[in-house]
Amino acid sequence: MSAESPLIFALPDLGEGLEEAEIIAWHVSPGDHVVADQPIVSVETDKAVVDIPSPYSGRIARLLAKEGEHLKTGAPLIEFAGAEAGDVGAVVGELEVAAAGPVRAAATPSPARAAEGAPLRIKASPAVRALAGTLAVELAGISGSGPGGEITKADVERAASVLRAGDGAEPLTGVRRAMARRMADAGAVVVPATVTEEADVEAWPAEADVTARLVEAIVAGCRAEPSLNAAFDGRALTRRLARRVNVGIAFDTSDGLFVPVLFDAASRDAAALRREIDALKQAVGDRTIPPAALRGATITLSNFGTLGGVHGSLVVVPPQVAILGAGRIAARAVVRGKSLAARRILPLSLTFDHRAVSGGEAGRFLGVVKAELERMH
User: Fold this and answer.
1) Labelling 53: which of 2, 333, 361, 377 has CA 20 to 30 A away?
2) Residue 167: what pLDDT?
3) Residue 345's closest CA among 200, 195, 196, 197?
4) Cα–Cα distance measured from residue 250 to residue 294, given in angstroms and rounded to the nearest whole number
5) Residue 321 in contact with residue 353, Cβ under 8 Å?
């Protein structure tokens, strides 16, 4: 292969069922010389922001996608000139790019591409570029207030506020865009039903780890009623009971909802559960959570009571068949014997896919969860 042969590198196979990504920030410009494995672009999927490295050493000829553009796997990403094909480097993070080999460029570029010319070089750090992608702000339209005209975080935030004040429409990107699609898909197929219960947790110490205790109670419920810990195929009408209890834990963030998975929850004691939950929360906050950690849940927990709310009708995401919601713990007047007593009550909501789970199975599961929570001291 000639050293001057133009090569087009396509968006690599992102793995984990991910089919598209949004271009967050280019780290190179036409004319730049790069070396293999040098980060060339940051992209955002519905899982995380990751860097894609250069598969070659050579000169950048053209960028074939703009910041903010959504690309499907296999779409042209960047053109190299004066590069020799080598091994495709590993992507920073969990993405796999081995399937994305070079594609020979057309001998004659299209008139549209030829007329584009070299894009304006924008001075902005990768963090600022990532923020601009998240807020749907076009960097080319911003005058930087930093040294040498560099665009700062404050510049991007001001531009975003102007956009929001203009027409009120804010395009969904990244995680929030994926959340909207996933919820719509789930709502189109699941037949949801919800049952509620209340657990008396007056005996819990003030410092009780609520989330860890809820996970332990879910494990007990799944042992007693395995039908809630299952995967359901609505097309084939088949159900597969899971051998392990992999609990998806919902985390609310400004970017949208993340549900990392606490794998094999039954194998951990309370202290280990807390360490794992903290680690997942930190990784979500840092946006370093790998795609593999967001897949494989067999049942989900939403502890929405930490934010507010008592009972809720939640969304079951296939192929799971159930999600347990925990509301706000508060003192209630409860009848004990022939008198009223103030007791701390934890509201519980279990939403299940009625195609795969019967009301009796859901009731038994929730009964065990309640009993387990009330047993804990």
Assistant:
1) 2
2) 57
3) 200
4) 10
5) yes
Cα–chain-centroid distance for residue 20? 13
Q: Which residue has the higher pLDDT, 311 or 167?
A: 311
Read off the pTM: 0.63
Mean pLDDT of 182-186: 87
Distances (CA, A) of 188 to 183, 234, 259, 295, 362: 9, 12, 20, 21, 22
Give yes or no for a contact between 305 and 336, defined as CB atoms under 8 angstroms apart. Answer: no
What is the token pair recorded at 88? 């495709």
Tokens representing residue 239 in the block = 């159900």
CA distance 311 to 183: 19
CA distance 120 to 112: 17
Q: How far apart are CA 373 and CA 377, in angstroms?
A: 9
How far apart are the two ends of the chain, measured CA to CA in Å? 71
* 73 class by beta-carbon count within 10 Å (0-12 exposed, 13-18 middle, 19+ buried): middle
Return the beta strands (E) in the chain as ranges. 7-10, 20-26, 33-34, 39-44, 49-53, 57-63, 70-72, 76-84, 102-104, 192-200, 230-233, 238-241, 247-249, 251-253, 256-258, 261-262, 299-302, 322-326, 330-336, 339-353
- Which of 137, 167, 173, 172 shows the shortest CA–CA distance to 154? 137
Among the residue ranges 62-76, 173-187, 250-264, the one predicted with the least confidence is: 173-187
State the average pLDDT for the chain. 83
